[in-house]
Design goal:
heterodimer, A: 156 residues, alpha+beta, Thiol Ester Dehydrase, Chain A, 6-stranded antiparallel sheet, B: 144 residues, 6 strands, globular
Chain lengths: 156, 144
């Protein structure tokens, strides 16, 4: 599987997540063990109306989506991996009117559990938040075949 | 962050509509709050746009996190004697059950209030309070 196939799979996957579509999340870069997604700025997700800073919840969703999709690059057959837990540390408020990026990596993958870490940042490289997460592997059979094929882009 | 006048109004009347309207993200996910005596119950009515997994279907984990995080911030704002704006430092979230496509509830508890930092526990549930879908812990920095 090359990075183009990986990016297409992640794009198709996040397009099935209503909230990811609502936020306008898009794929920037995919490798076997890493994934970068982009959250565009929007007035609708502001948490602090005085400053225009977006709410932490939108960043949590960005990081949960990125961390929960990064494993697609490492799996031949698509599996949906529910989040077990997330720990988010906020370093600084995201600068208004600029997109926020999240880059996640898988640092350990076992038969049952996937361990991820993720950094949210903006142009210029300043870290907005860090996140570590664990995800459960429920196996490909937990999903209907049609949905798996939709994400994979062909028969599985 | 939030206008002190709106906070005072909310505290005096128990009407959360102005406070919620003043925070765009609250309307984005559809957060609601009801007061019962001194207790606050936060509500997240079912909403298509909040879904993640389309097969179950279930609410996106990030939305559940955002809902709990915002609930904790509002709870803390109203729990303060003086008007102080909480700023979130970190957030630790355990997902216990899938959040199905139905109304979700959350309640908060102030575990420890120091001079500058507050520790808040948040529990979210759907069908039964005794079967939480998620529990979380947040630290907030309080600034004058």
């Amino acid at each position: 599987m090359d990075d183009k196939i990986r990016a297409d799979r992640v794009t198709r996957f996040i397009e099935t997540l209503n909230q990811a579509r609502e936020l306008g999340l898009s794929v920037i870069e995919t490798t076997e063990f890493s994934l970068t997604l982009c959250l565009p700025y929007s007035d609708r997700i502001i948490g602090n109306p005085d400053t225009g800073v977006i709410h932490g919840g939108a960043i949590t969703t960005l990081m949960d989506t990125t961390s929960g999709s990064v494993m697609l690059g490492a799996m031949d057959v698509f599996e949906l991996c529910p989040t077990l837990d997330l720990r988010v540390d906020y370093m600084r408020p995201a600068e208004p009117r600029k997109p926020v990026y999240a880059r996640a990596e898988v640092y350990k993958m076992t038969r049952n559990i996937i361990f991820t870490r993720c950094e949210a940042y903006q142009e210029g490289g300043e870290t907005v938040a860090n996140c570590v997460g664990t995800f459960m592997r429920i196996g490909p059979d937990a999903l209907p075949k049609a949905y798996r094929e939709k994400i994979t882009g062909g028969p599985v | 962050m939030t206008d002190p006048e709106i906070l005072r109004y909310t505290r005096d009347t128990g009407d959360f509509s102005r406070l919620i309207t003043s925070i765009p993200y609250a309307s984005f996910i559809g957060l609601q709050c009801d007061q019962f005596g001194d207790d606050l119950i936060f509500r997240l009515p079912a909403k298509d746009q909040n879904l993640g997994n389309p097969i179950l279907p279930s609410i996106h984990g990030g939305v559940i996190g955002g809902f709990m995080e915002l609930s904790a911030a509002i709870y803390l704002m109203l729990a303060q004697e003086t008007i102080r704006m909480p700023r979130i430092v970190n957030f630790s979230l355990d997902y216990l059950r899938a959040g199905l496509d139905r109304e979700t509830y959350a309640e908060c508890q102030l575990t420890r209030q120091g001079n500058r930092v507050a520790n808040v526990m948040i529990t979210a549930w759907q069908k039964s309070r005794s079967k939480p879908i998620s529990t979380a812990r947040a630290h907030f920095l309080l600034e004058d």
